[in-house]
Amino acid sequence: MTPSLLAVEVKQHAIMRLQENTQKIAKCLDQLSEVEIWQRPNASSNSMGNLILHLCGNITQYIISSLGGKEDRRVRDEEFDAKGGYSKKELQLKLESTVAQAIEVIQTISDEELLRVRPVQAYEFSGVGNVIHAVEHYSYHTGQIAFWTKQVRNKDLGFYADVDLNRKGQ
User: Fold this and answer.
1) Domain spans in the chain, listed from the N-terminal domain onward
2) What is the rounded CA–CA span in Å between residue 140 and residue 145?
């Protein structure tokens, strides 16, 4: 069965946002030292390393496991309990690999599977709901990572340096 135009559009934009946020996080990783990626702003917050582990866990659970049919082995608390154990490069490779697997699942999932409701954590979402959740969750934590990087480095990260954001659409 040929995918619907709406499904194609949703998939393309989800993939674009996953790729865009992966690039933003890579830019942040480049700005910080090995020690700084594991620093927590305060006792109630997570380090950049924790957030990357958390993003990998969430994307794996909502996309790779739930939509892709892989076994869900996530132990969510471990993502937040970690105080190190991964270098910047290892975190970046883990994130890139997770996102690449998620993109493969999104690209190949059928319209029927996008509409099928399934349980994930304490929720029940359609495949589209899972994709939207994973993408918005990724964006949310990318913003936290960018904010923390700006706090540590006290400089603009230049995410939109080559884009005229004052241009109006017609």
Assistant:
1) 5-153
2) 9
Q: How many CA atoms within 13 Å lie on the side-chain side of 72?
A: 13
Q: Dihedral sign, CA of 50, 53, 58, 61?
A: negative
Neighbours of 118 (CB within 10 A): 14
Kindly give the confidence (pLDDT) of every residue in the chain, 170 residues in length, as a single tens digit, with 9 standing for 90 and above.
Answer: 677 999 999 999 999 999 999 999 999 999 999 999 999 989 999 999 999 999 999 999 999 999 999 999 999 999 999 999 999 999 999 999 999 999 999 999 999 999 999 999 999 999 999 999 999 999 999 999 999 999 999 999 999 999 999 998 86
Reading the block at residue 8, the tokens are 């194609």
Name the class of domain 5-153.
Answer: mainly alpha
- Burial class, 16, CB count within 10 angstroms (exposed 0-12 / middle 13-18 / buried 19+): exposed
Q: Under a CB-based contact definition with an 8 Å cutoff, are residues 76 and 57 in contact? A: yes
Taking a C-beta distance cutoff of 8 angstroms, is the pair 149, 48 a contact?
yes
Helix (H), strand (E) at residue 142:
helix 127-153
Residues in CB range of 16: below 8 A, 6 or more apart: none
pTM, 2 dp: 0.94
